[in-house]
């Protein structure tokens, strides 16, 4: 990723706004941008979703492949979640092998889904020790207008919940809907002008500091956390964020529920 | 070209398996400004193919060794998303996407007024979201609209179109089955406003007469798709005239 110059004027402006409890976009401290979720939108994917989240646009496609199970888990299928921050998504992204930023995004989304246990890995097994489904989630960021973690996480779980196991294509029976028991949702908070805000946009990320991403499951339990970028935070700040996080996660879960039967 | 005539691709009444006439294109839809952070962008759906394109620039060309003293460098990346095909493709560049990127860049270097931007670079990023035969053409169409949206001066918009041969018959715009089991494919990038050809590839087996027929089909289709591109741009900027 190309190093971006952070204008000191922007930093100062964000700090001044924060002092007056304002944001550059006019939003409240914990107010998110409008989110539009579309599912089953990619012809060749086995499950798909598109999220337009402010100026951020993310597609997620789910594909299945038959693999030999790992020898230590002969009755278990597997899950892979990867992200590609390609140069299409912003002028700061450069071509080449996956950047550390891409890998972090893919792994944070992966952990939230994997650790929630929303997919029964044993149900993905066809013949123990011989063949099991591998679920592959590919995150394709088309436009990075800030907060790609939440947009990618939302698109990923929506695409999974919309996925069909292509058994007939592999001659192992009839196609069936992938069983997804839970809907883990990720929420990201960024320090902007000295305080935390929910759902930072492009300018806030450029002039902001560290971010905290938290994935909550249906029953409110936590499945993954990640602190990224330069900066530190206190336990008191974390606990304030978690209160906001609960509300926002359940709103976004309702959005997914409304789009997937 | 795959099967060479051993699969039936034409119905008894001469129509194609998907019901199209031999000189009928798949439907084309164009949207402008789909990538908010880009300087210009477009989305094109052509049959079941779907592509988005972002344009960034003109910007300073880095590293300096790629700079041209008297013109801009056109930097194209054509990439297929891992979920765009029925078997997942491993992410990253391969020989096919590198070749398509190269000839597409050369097509646009011939139509964009590159001499206006010495030492700079114009990035064209084509992402294929759904692939069902003819994605390089869809990418070219999307790139032309994205360049126009970015306000980059060019002599005209290139339209990506293809004709081919199935069961010894020349047809416009091959779909997946026709591409896999047909006898020839002729993708072209045509500028309908000037009548020039900026992009051409071909594989398979065509006689000189069949080639002429395929070129004629391509020119007719390019003019029609150009109208759709222009209408989408007008709708985006004027809010009407569609």
Question: Could you describe the 3D structure shown?
Answer:
The complex is a heterodimer of chains A (261) and B (242). Chain A has 261 residues and is an alpha+beta fold. Chain A has a single domain, classed as Ribosomal Protein S5, domain 2. Helix content of chain A is 28%, strand content 29%. Chain A is built from 5 helices and 12 strands. In chain A, strands 1, 2, 3, 4, 5 and 6 form a 6-stranded mixed sheet that branches. Chain A is elongated, with a radius of gyration of 19 Å. Chain A starts with 7 loop residues before the first helix and ends with a helix. The mean pLDDT of chain A is 95. Chain B has a single domain (28-238), classed as GHMP Kinase, N-terminal domain (Ribosomal Protein S5, domain 2, 2-Layer Sandwich). Helices cover 28% and strands 29% of the residues of chain B. Chain B is built from 4 helices and 10 strands, in the order ββββαβαββαβββα. In chain B, strands 1-2-3-5-4 form a 5-stranded mixed sheet. Classes of the chains: A alpha+beta (261), B alpha+beta (242). The interface between A and B is medium-sized, with 33 and 33 residues.
Radius of gyration of chain B: 18 Å
The number of helical runs of chain A is 5
Low-confidence stretches of chain A: none
Order of helices and strands of chain B: EEEEHEHEEHEEEH
CATH fold annotation of chain B: Ribosomal Protein S5, domain 2
Helix content of chain A: 25-40%
Overall geometric form of chain B: globular
| Portion in beta strands of chain A | 25-35%
Q: How would you sum up the global shape of chain A?
A: elongated
Quick take:
The complex is a heterodimer of chains A (261) and B (242). With 261 residues, chain A is α+β, with helices and mostly antiparallel strands.
């Amino acid at each position: 990723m190309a190093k971006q110059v952070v204008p000191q004027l922007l930093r100062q402006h964000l700090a001044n706004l924060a002092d007056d409890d304002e944001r550059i976009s006019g939003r409240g401290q914990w107010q998110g941008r409008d989110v539009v979720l579309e599912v089953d939108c990619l012809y060749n994917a086995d499950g798909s979703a598109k999220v337009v989240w402010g100026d951020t646009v993310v597609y997620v496609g789910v594909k299945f492949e038959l693999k030999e199970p790992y020898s230590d888990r002969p009755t278990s299928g597997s899950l892979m979640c990867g992200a590609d921050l390609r140069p299409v998504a912003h002028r700061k992204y450069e071509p080449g092998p996956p950047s550390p930023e891409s890998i972090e995004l893919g792994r944070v989304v992966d952990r939230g889904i994997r650790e929630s246990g929303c997919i029964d890995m044993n149900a993905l097994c066809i013949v123990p020790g011989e063949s099991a489904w591998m679920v592959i989630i590919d995150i394709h960021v088309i436009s990075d207008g800030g907060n790609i973690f939440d947009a990618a996480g939302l698109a990923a779980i929506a695409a999974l919940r919309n996925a069909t196991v292509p058994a007939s294509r592999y001659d192992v029976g009839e196609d069936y809907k992938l069983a997804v028991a839970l809907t883990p949702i990720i929420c990201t908070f960024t320090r902007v002008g000295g305080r935390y805000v929910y759902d930072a946009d492009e300018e806030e990320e450029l002039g902001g500091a560290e971010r905290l991403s938290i994935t909550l499951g249906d029953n409110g339990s936590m499945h993954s956390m990640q602190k990224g970028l330069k900066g530190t935070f206190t336990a008191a700040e974390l606990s304030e964020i978690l209160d906001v996080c609960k509300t926002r996660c359940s709103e976004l879960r309702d959005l997914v529920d409304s789009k997937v039967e | 070209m795959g099967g060479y005539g051993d699969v039936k691709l034409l119905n008894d009444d001469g129509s194609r398996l998907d019901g199209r006439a031999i000189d009928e294109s798949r439907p084309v839809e164009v949207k402008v400004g789909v990538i908010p952070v880009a300087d210009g962008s477009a989305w094109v759906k052509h049959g079941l193919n779907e592509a988005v394109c972002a344009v960034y620039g003109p910007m300073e060309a880095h590293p300096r060794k790629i700079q041209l003293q008297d013109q801009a460098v056109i930097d194209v990346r054509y990439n297929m998303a891992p979920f765009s095909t029925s078997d997942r493709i491993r992410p990253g560049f391969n020989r096919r996407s590198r070749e398509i990127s190269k000839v597409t860049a050369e097509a646009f270097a011939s139509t964009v007024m590159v001499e206006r931007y010495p030492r700079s670079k114009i990035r064209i990023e084509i992402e294929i979201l759904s692939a069902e035969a003819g994605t390089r053409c869809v990418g070219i169409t999307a790139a032309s609209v994205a360049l126009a949206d970015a306000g980059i001066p060019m002599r005209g918009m290139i339209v990506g179109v293809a004709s081919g041969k199935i069961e010894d018959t020349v047809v416009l715009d091959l779909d997946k089955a026709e591409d896999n089991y047909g006898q020839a494919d002729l993708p072209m990038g045509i500028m309908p406003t000037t009548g020039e050809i900026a992009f051409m590839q071909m594989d398979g087996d065509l006689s000189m007469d069949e080639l002429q027929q395929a070129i004629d089909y391509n020119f007719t289709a390019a003019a029609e798709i150009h109208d759709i591109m222009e209408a989408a741009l007008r709708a985006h900027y004027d809010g009407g005239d569609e």
